[in-house]
Design brief:
It contains three helices and four strands, in the order H-E-H-E-H-E-E. It is of the alpha+beta class and 110 residues long. Helix 2 (40-48) links the parallel strand 1 and strand 2.
């Protein structure tokens, strides 16, 4: 069991290194049919590298978001390169009522 956890950790660290190498600082992840498509360990390592993770983006919203920030959706880590990244001046989580939070993206390219 320990060997499996070490392999998982090594795999996740490698994925995070590849993401960091592109210069990405906000990662948008489409909602998955898998309940835990994003691992807590991966979220921890990404947070340590100051990468904001926005998970559970609706499939219907992906095209609109990509057009808005000039990004290209990437289905696999092997295709995740700097030229696919979009841009915005500010991405922040803001309160939208008593219990809800919304991700606000401003300064999108024209």
């Amino acid at each position: 069991m320990d060997r499996i956890l070490k392999e998982e950790r090594k795999y996740i660290v490698n994925l995070v290194k590849r993401i960091v190498a592109t210069g990405c600082n906000v990662l948008l992840i489409q909602k998955s049919i898998l309940r835990d498509a994003v691992n807590e360990l991966a979220l921890h390592f990404l947070a340590k590298k100051n990468i904001m993770v926005i998970k559970d983006v609706e499939r219907n919203d992906v095209d609109f978001i990509c057009k808005t920030i000039n990004a290209i959706p990437v289905p696999h880590i092997d295709q995740f390169t700097k030229d696919k990244l979009g841009g915005a001046e500010l991405v922040e989580e803001v309160s939208a009522g008593s219990d809800k939070k919304v991700i606000k993206v401003t300064g999108c390219p024209a």
